[in-house]
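Researcher: Here's a chain I'd like modeled. Treat it as a single chain, no partners, no ligands.
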Amino acid sequence: MPITELLARNAELYGDKICLTEINPEQRKGREPAWRELALVETARNARYRKELTWRTFDEKANQFANLLAARGVRRGDKVGILLMNCIEWLPIYFGVLKSGAVAVPMNFRYSSDEIKYALDLAGISVLVLGPEFIDRMQAIKDDMPTVRSLFFVGDDCPDFAESYERLTAAQSQEAPDIRLTDDEDAAIYFSSGTTGFPKAILHSHRSLVVSCQVEQKHHGQAHDDIFLCIPPLYHTGAKMHWFGSLFTGGSAVLLRGIRPDWIIETVAGEGVSIVWLLVPWAQDILDAIESGDIKLADYDLSAWRLMHIGAQPVPPSLIRRWKKFFPHHEYDTNYGLTESIGPGAVHLGVENIHKVGAIGKAGYGWRTKIVDERGEAVKPGAVGELLLAGDGVMKCYYRDREATAATLKDGWLYTGDMAREDEDGFIFLVDRKKDVIITGGENIYPVQIEDFLRGHDKIKDAAVIGLADHRLGEIAAAIIEIKADMECGEEEIMHFCGQLPRYKRPRRIIFDHVPRNATGKIEKPRLRAKYCGESIVEQQIENAGGITPIPQGGVDEN
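Model: Modeled as a single isolated chain. Structure tokens:
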């Protein structure tokens, strides 16, 4: 069943139900009514702050965009790029592309002009939908996009090199185009986070998308009356595939444009949110705000909130212990997956297994896992090896990259590049990225283990561990430490704390700096390696420990 049929079903069964609400706190102007009144008070002042969409209107807007694409000569298999910040138009545009038989190509909002051009050329994008945040970047390349035939602009003040999405779609029929889709047809291309240069294009079928709907609902028991809070960027598989649980059940979701802790808590209370997916930094920020008194939980009605889950990165057990202290009645889950495995859910902990916090869990619904050595043979329980995945949600290929596809898909298994181990109960623990393993004096050091340990220090907000060249040991572990606001901590205190670790795991360098993370919460280690690649730079940073040096903008995301 193509995923577009789920949208059409929801429009028929739940046409008048609000399915999407966009909240943009930065758009608030002047005095606003109390938060609990917002659902009841509709004023022109609030129109840009809070927008709503019913399932019927969602479906109609998707049909209109599909018909616009057909009118512009877009045919089955053509590629349509989406370069938008989260907004209420995002998902209807995505489904309009799918309904037209074309392939949706969401793009990272952090892309530079060069990266945008690279993605356009690699995917062969013929139509691009963009928002106002990207005008300057598009200006730089608008005359060098040989495959792009049409540019549609979402927002006011359409630039002269594009056409108005709103004006053009309004003139199209709201009836669904007569295009029959199959499960095996190409549906979407997602780009990897780009760990070693420009990102790879990952091709998925309609079957993959439907699998992600089923997995999400199965894992988190999403019901029709659940309300899901979506904060991460929709271009990423994580955010969209978690929202697919709402699509599967005909439930509601809130798109929050902002990550401030008070905005998150206010939205949960004001909208009656029951499920929230957070990234590790956001959960830490919420806990910090509660502990500092900036957020007083007694001021909010959070009774509807039943589940908090985290994915996209390793989760420090200390974080969940802190979370349960303030939210003892919350169910908790963690999810693991790759863009190559249609995002989250290939492995998941399960809300009934909170006693195993620290593990990523077991094979998800409909998935299989295996941990192998360098020869591709299964390792014994407790031994570290590479994690493999198999299931209907695995990508079709790396688009236009046969060599990379052959290296990643072997004998029906997806080689993840993640090092993991399995305990005696069958729970999988993520150890680190295969390429991030530090070999010091012949010993393997897995940075994630040290990072989790360091985050257990009361004064440490975040930590990242990278390998630095050493003439004697080959590599040494360097810890980049970000201290919590209004706290002081020196190298001697960190080194004393690390005395609890085995000697070979203790960082040999301590660097006090900001820990950069990408839009999905992953540590941007390539940027850290680029910054601290020279010994003289490292020595200077050690000498000046305590000073915070901003990380330069740009660079490549960590996968």
